[in-house]
Amino acid sequence: MDATFLQERIDATKAQIVAYEDAVTALVGGGVQSYTLDTGQSRQTVTRLDLGALQKHIDALYNRLATLEARRNGSGAVTARPGW
Question: Check: CATH 3.40.1000 for 3-73?
Answer without folding.
Answer: no
